Amino acid sequence: MTAQTLEIKRSSASLWGTTTGIRTLPTVAKYIDTTTCIGCKACEAACQEWNDLKRVPTTQDGSYQTMPQLDADFWNLIRFNEREVDGGLMWMMRKDQCMHCAEPGCLAACPAPGAIVQYSNGIVDVNPELCIGCGYCATGCPFDVPKFHAKTSKMSKCTLCVDRVEVGLEPACVKACPTGCLNFGEKEDMVALGNARVAQLKTAGFSEAVLYDPKGVGGTGVITVLKFNRPEWYNLPADPHVPLLVRAWKSILRPLGVFAALASVIAVFGHFTTYGPKEVVGSDDTLDRPRRDDERGPQ
Asked: Which of 154, 165, 216, 284 would disulfide-bridge 241, Cβ 3.0–4.6 Å?
């Protein structure tokens, strides 16, 4: 990929975004083919190393999976799901991470200005310095991605290696994958690659093969080839949507609040220009002259 200069398309707690419109960048995406993933966890190690994340204690619960879920210091997790298909055992392995939604629920729910941003290339990122640790972003994400540090209460997640993408490199996990199940580039190209793989799988007898790119969140920056059209088998929601309350807050309630405040200011100004300042009862002479004895109170 060629180097890109980042420009913010929109940010949290902003009505109209902050894009200047000076440059238009193609939307990027990561391609994941779950049918060729071997569960080697090279992507996990590469993510930890490149992002200089702290070590997180692993757990042993009878699975090859590193830990039960994502963590504030563990942004990339290979999920190992065992399923019985046609009388046999089959692994449904999937690379779990932030999906970089086109309509990110985390950004819509966040009340802190600039804490969550979406760049013009589609990548969704977090500014920990502006994060207030309220946890609202977690309520807006249908993929259960945002995680918070226990000590700092700051949210962190996969950045799609935005620092690498900015200078024309692919994400660290893609670079480390030994089987070619990961790829990265412009979304149109990744969708074409995914559709071609789905067609190949159907020809091979997997009639339920599908490309997971849910429209309920406007599509995602991480598109996934599934051998079976059963997203729940891969710990994915079948039809993810940003919660209605979050969408109402972003699209209706917040703009109404701004317009109500603006209307109040206009009303005050209109009242002042129409009626002028409030006058004090009584003339200046009455206020300034010495008070008579009968006007004085008890001595």
From this structure: 216
Q: For the purposes of burial, counting CB atoms within 10 Å of the CB of 115, is it exposed (0-12), middle (13-18) or buried (19 or more)? A: buried
Both 265 and 218 in one domain: the answer is: no
Q: How many CA atoms lie within 13 A of 119 on its CB side?
A: 24
Beta bridge partners of 125: 117
Task: Tell me how many domains the chain contains.
Answer: 2
Q: Are 8 and 122 in contact (CB under 8 A)?
A: no
- Edge-to-edge strand list for the sheet holding 210-212: 182-186, 28-33, 222-226, 210-212
> 266 with 172, same domain?
no
Please count the other Cβ atoms lying within 10 Å of the Cβ belonging to residue 264.
10
**How many other C-beta atoms lie within 10 A of the C-beta of residue 217?**
22
Residue 165 sits at φ, ψ, to 5 deg, of: -60, -35
Cα 184 to Cα 178: distance, rounded to the nearest angstrom: 14
Pairing outcome for strands 28-33 and 222-226: parallel
| Model pLDDT for residues 136-156, shown as the tens digit of each residue | 999 999 999 999 998 899 999
Whole-model pTM? 0.81
Residue 260 identity: A
